[in-house]
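Troubleshooting entry. The earlier prediction with FE2/S2 (inorganic) cluster gave an output that would not parse, so I re-checked the input for stray whitespace and re-submitted. Clean input:
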Amino acid sequence: MEPITNLIKSLADRHGRDRSSLLPILQGVVEQEKYLSEYSMIEIARELDLPATEVYGTATFYSFLEHKKMGRYIIRICKTITCSMKGESQILLAIQDMLKIKVGETTPDGAFSLLQTNCLGFCHKAPAMLINNEVYTELTPEKVREILSSYLNNQNGGGQNVS
Ligand code: FES
């Protein structure tokens, strides 16, 4: 049996096999695998006895569910109006410049993926971004460079544990 099938079975054991279990199971797969493959969606549909179209619809509705392999650290920068008025484009440039990737790309070492997202609910502290589940607010290009440096140092065995 494929490891992903085992993972889905154990998530279904934990969350149950009815419709309301679909989202936590999708999240569990993404947390573990960092993305959601078509194979995983079909396996989830089979495990929960749901139409595959329903699994796919839920997965695409929640844009936090990725469909391709992501880096260990997923940066999501808010592109909604308040952040965009408060300098989101400079933050994005600073990140792109430092990591040498564009939005939608992953660094060649598989460490960082860069995405844009809608409002994170921190408009009063814009501009804001997420790195995995960690929220960073009131960003400036300098501040974002410091944050990324701490992740890069952490990758090399030093710095704070930010995973
Ligand atoms: S507009 Fe960016 S957090 Fe709300």
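This one parsed fine. Residues 68 and 145 are 26 Å apart (CA to CA).
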